[in-house]
Amino acid sequence: MSHRRRWGVHVASVLALATACAPAPAYDLVLTGGTVVDGTGAVPRAADVAMRGGRIVAVAPDLSVRNAQRVIDVSGLVVAPGFWDNHAHLVTLSQHPMAENFIRQGITTVLAPQHSQDQPFPLDAYRDSVRMAPNVGLFAGHTWIRKRVMGLANRAPTAAELAWMEALVDSSMQQGALGLATGLEYVPATYADVDEVAALAAVAARHGGIYVTHMRDEGAAVMESLRETLEVGRRAGIPVQVNHLKVTGAAQWGWSERMLALLDSARAAGQPVAFDVYPYTAYSTYSDLMFPAWALADGANAFRARVADPATRGRLVREMRELFPRQTGAEPSSIQFREVTHDSTLAGKTLHDYLVARGRPTTIDAAVEALIELQLAGGFIGIFHGMAERDVVRFLQHPATMIETDGDLVVPGRGHPHPRTYGSFPRVLQRYVRDSAVITLEAAVQRMTSLPAQWLGINDRGTLAEGKVADVVVFDPRTIEDRSTYLDPHHYPEGIRHVVINGVLVLEAGAMTGARPGVFLSRGRPASGGATNPR
Q: Which of 52, 85, 102, 307 lies 20 to 30 A from 18 at CA?
């Protein structure tokens, strides 16, 4: 053997020995044996996922785990990025920081537009004081801002009032808000015109924010509302997102096709537009929605005075008769009570049940009179069975659709929440992926993860890849199930095994760990704009 050959064999032997003796990488946590659905839309693949220091450091088959602090065998399970809830109600987050009903759906990040609820203020003090399990994104809330400046007045703001509202948006953005959120279907936001909304949205745009909206109408005027939303975006130079895209009222069922065509047209023209949905054919909101907005202006006493005036009441009844089928189903049974402050025994019952119990006919005329009666007593929060399954499916199949719950922080056994609060994300994976194959598993996960992260310009979350923040969910695709129902809502879903947030286990083997590693999200978009449509 030549000297050169002997030297080569010696070097190869040394290198092989060094490789064999090299220490295995140190990991905080390794999930082994699972099927990775990485959030990009790529087909599932077998791989281990290793985490260290709150980040994903390896995604590959057969990783060495000799120096791992924790190893969890997830054979037979899906490993995916943590799910993003694009719209939920977190007004009681400081009282319920574990957000268990969200965590148990596999949700690791919750966006809280609070468009029709009060916004915490100042935001920076709130962000400093609350420690929670999920990551949270906050917005400047138009309803809170308008009420603070104008109360429940049904008019346009003065120049001074508009300047004050703009200052509150600006202050909120400086303190970490991701954008401006409106709830234009509700009092008092419904009294704002497009000029007011665009002016406030322009303030958010200067900080790199987005505009998120519960539109002015999701029923008979839904097309006009979509056009208004797009107009706000164009005027303010801001990306726009429609929360819980839907079409309500039996008279409008099937309109999803034309709605998506309008949105696609705007996207094709270069306007940054996004939207999200929840997978149910019933929505939940205040009883206010069954009344024309003018009737509720200036508060409860003003409403009572209008009802007491025969001519005004006659006008109200006529408009409500027309409004009923445009907002919900065609029968009184389509309205189910969630929370009735003056009579808790009504929770879970329907308006049909209410009429029968009082010996009244179950007609729309009788239903309108009952709604007025209930509103005078303080109103209610209801579940309105007013959407069509074919529209829900069409929205879910669109490649740009993101997912949300529109849910609330709840205590098991207390109140009567909409089942979306407990089961939205598992329901997509169960009903529309496994049972009906409306969408593929990888497409569903992409809608729940990378699409919202990309939309917000947050590039270090939303996929399973080296260097990304370790927000991870592990679930069983064979058993995942939404167990919450309209009549019996207080049930957590099945099939979610483990949830990791910022590298920390918050749900392990189906049990909450008590950890609160969540962070408040920061804006990812540049102040100058430059947004792109989610694909």
A: 52
Burial of residue 522 (number of CB atoms within 10 Å: 0-12, 13-18, 19+): exposed
* Other beta carbons less than 10 A from residue 136's beta carbon: 22
Residue 480 CB neighbour total at 10 angstroms: 24
Q: For residue range 266-297, what is the model confidence (pLDDT) as tens digits?
A: 999 999 999 999 999 999 989 998 999 899 99
What ranges make up the beta strands (E) of 343-450?
381-384, 401-403
Strand ranges of the sheet holding 381-384, from the earlier edge strand across to the other edge: 283-286, 381-384, 335-339
CA 88 to CA 113: how far, in whole Å?
Answer: 7
Q: Does 71 have pLDDT greater than 80? A: yes
- Count Cα atoms within 13 angstroms, Cβ side, for 170: 10
Q: What is the pLDDT of residues 14-44, one digit of tens each?
A: 444 444 455 778 999 999 999 999 999 999 9
Q: Whole-model pTM?
A: 0.89
Domains, the chain, ordered by start: 83-281+387-512 (3.20.20.140), 286-384 (no CATH)
Q: 14-30 as b/e, with b when 16 or more CB fall inside 10 Å?
A: eeeeeeeeeeebebbbb
d(CA 429, CA 431): 6
Q: How many CA atoms lie within 13 A of 496 on its CB side?
A: 34
